[in-house]
Amino acid sequence: MTYDPWQNYSNNSSSVLLHATAVAVGQKGLLILGPSGAGKSHLAIEMLALGADLISDDRVWLRNNGFGLMLHPAEPLAGRIEARGLGLISCPMMPSVPLEYCLDLSLTSEARLPFALEVTKLGHRVLVLPGGPVVPQAAALVLLVKNGFAAYD
Fold it and tell me: What pLDDT score was predicted for residue 45?
């Protein structure tokens, strides 16, 4: 079976339920896509330790609020994150934040400074960053979500 990072696990046509993890830095969200075992939760835990907030682990709702895409936690997993080898850990969470960036751990680029791909979901553009072959550092992702990309002059 081929991995589809955007597979909708819901029958709802106005929102998408994804196998993903999402974190917030301030009021901006990062959606982390990848197959089981790719390291979504591990990367999110590192970001949480650096001050990010959990939106949801393992399942994330993506919804159109009319102005953009919002990330929402999925029940019954809200407020929990899986730490392999330990189990589920309780964690404070954000109820929702706007999607700023998406990191796809199944997408690779050999470029030192890879460009984001653009996809359209629920009528809005999503910037998708490749997550391999080297997964970006959690600290770099926190800075990216907080500050955005620098301009190339």
Answer: 96
For 66-80, b/e burial (b = at least 16 CB within 10 A) is eeebbbbbbeebbbb
Distance between CA atoms of 81 and 83, rounded to whole angstroms?
A: 6
pLDDT recorded at residue 58: 94
What's the CA gap between 142 and 106, in Å, rounded?
Answer: 20
Q: Where are the strands (E) in 74-144, listed by range?
A: 80-83, 87-90, 97-108, 117-121, 124-132
Give the span between the Cα atoms of 80 and 19, in whole angstroms. Answer: 15
pTM: 0.94
Which is nearest to 35 in space by CA: 68, 80, 4?
4
Pairwise CA distance, residues 117 & 135, whole Å: 16
H or E stretch covering 24: strand 20-25
The H or E element containing residue 94 is none
Q: How deeply is 8 buried, as exposed, middle or buried, from its count of CB atoms within 10 A (0-12, 13-18, 19+)?
A: middle
- 8 Å CB contact between 45 and 83: yes
Looking at residues 76-94, what average pLDDT do you find? 90
